[in-house]
Automatic annotation (TrEMBL):
The species this protein was found in: Domibacillus iocasae
Descriptive protein name: Spore gernimation protein KC
Pfam families reported for this sequence: Spore_GerAC (PF05504), Spore_GerAC_N (PF25198)
Keyword Signal assigned: yes
GO biological process: spore germination
Assigned keywords, A-Z: Germination, Lipoprotein, Membrane, Palmitate, Signal
Subcellular location: Membrane
Amino acid sequence: MNRKAMFLFFIMISTVFISGCWSQKELNELAIISAMAIDKNEDGKYVKTIQFVNPGNVAGGLQGGGGGQGPAVTVYTATGDTILEAHINASAKVSRRLYHAHANLLVISEEVAREEGIDGIIDAFERDPEVRTESKIVIARDAKAGDIVKSLTSIDKVPSEKVNKTLLVTERARGENIVVSIQDFISVSASLGREPVISGFRIKGEPEKGKKMENVQQSELDATLEASGLAVFKEEKLIDWYEGDLAKGTMWILDKIQQTDVKVSWKGKKNAVVYNVIRQKTNVSADTKNTYPEMTIHVRAEGDIRELTTPVDITDPAVISDLEKEIEKEIKKQLEKAVTRTQKNNSDIFGFGEVVHRTDPEKWKKMKRDWDDEYFPYVNVNVKVDAFIRRTGLRTNSFHSNTEK
């Protein structure tokens, strides 16, 4: 047999092993899920709300061709004793196969998170090979989780995209929220030295109006979705909410601050100077010589002066140095406030236990089982902050300095 014949023979044989289209999924046979929400009803059953994408309405917009005439999403709700049963029951309402692969948001109600925890819910979704573990998790605050995914949004047509993009923007700009995926939650929960935090979302306005197309056909929406605080967990149950300085202090310690503002007083005037952080680095170390470890948090921040509401001579190096000290005090206050509240909660959301584990593995073995309740509340925490002013904006002294009374 010559080479050409052998080559042809092997090509023909190889076709036997080609799988073909045995697992094909036609688009017109799929109901593409973009978000899921979990509540519980009065009977104690799980209520699963599923947000489906309407491809034609998403693509249309201002392009013409009939697109954008209806809502970008459709929502169905089903109940069950388990998450899986609720999902299966939802299939009775939809004419297509429920397809999870594009779902990027999971919303869990505050009530469920407080009363029974969310580990069982996360387990149900993680076990499904079709569910993406990169999907983001948020807690519905002061609202039903189902109402969050039912609310229509204006700039981003698909509500799940609006929630995810808002999380990214507010984490980068405000420093009061954090992006957490299913995989992130599992990773933190599996650690004995750290508890998870998850961002909250609430509906501002009237939830019922937010479900109607009229809500997005006006310049000021009757109901909007907005990020709202950090949900603090212990043993997978929600125990507290952090907002404002508490949330910022937590983000500082977690080394998650990308940008944020720091307001300081000057010569008796409150919030006279606004310092915008443009970069920072937080290092946490542990000293395990004593019975209770001693933690040191060192923050280095760099930023710009972004606002002055009173005359300040920022051309004077001595004034700049004094301002930096005031900024350091304010940042330190935020961190210490977060530490105090968290130690009262007996929930190590900062990962101090992980630092102790890395520093002294042998001592950690004796502490790990009782860390949150017996050790973490009594840990001495030292906070050190170095803040630097790099720029003062497009002008030096404020125009207030040149105003003649």
